[in-house]
Amino acid sequence: MRPELAALFEAARAVQARAHAPYSRFRVGAAIRAASGAIHVGCNVENAAYPVGACAEAGAISAMVAAGDRQIAAVLVYSEGAEPCTPCGACRQRLREFAAAAVPVHAAGPEGLRASHTLGELLPHAFGPDHLA
Ligand code: THU
To answer: 10 an active-site residue?
Structure first.
């Protein structure tokens, strides 16, 4: 794995350990590399009122915006499930707000990288900020 991707992988793996997922037991870590080079992380935070739970990607986006970054260069989602964990539909739209269609979205597990797609592949013909310009 190239060093830039390895840093994203390690950040997502580390934050996955902090996930609050007592209901699904499916812990997820997300790491975003901003255009600035900074890495922002988030983990899923579930709630006893199930629909109130938040995805790891949503947390990472919040951390990025709070830190002053607005442009996503790459995303990596880490989980231990059997399948590559690609962002849910709602999170694909959340990412679209700050990421161009060409931005890579990687899925990884304990053994390493599992799948890589662009955001445009995951959310084709997306509605985004340009539609309101
Ligand atoms: N989850 C994420 O945090 N990110 C994803 O990309 C897929 C799903 C979380 C939501 C919920 O806490 C748990 O995983 C099971 O759906």
So the answer is: no
Q: Ligand 1: which residues within 6 Å by Cβ?
A: 21, 24, 26, 28, 44, 46, 53, 55-57, 77, 85, 87-88, 91
Answer for the pair 42, 30: CB distance below 8 angstroms, yes or no. Answer: yes
* Whole-angstrom distance, CA of residue 99 vs CA of residue 37: 14
- Listed in sequence order, the residues at least 6 apart from 68 whose beta carbon sits closer than 8 Å to its beta carbon are none
Domain extent listing, the chain? 3-132
Candidates 4, 10, 46, 57; catalytic one? 57
Residues of the chain with pLDDT under 70: none
Specify the CATH number of the domain 3-132: 3.40.140.10
User: Whose structure tokens read 């013909």?
Assistant: 125
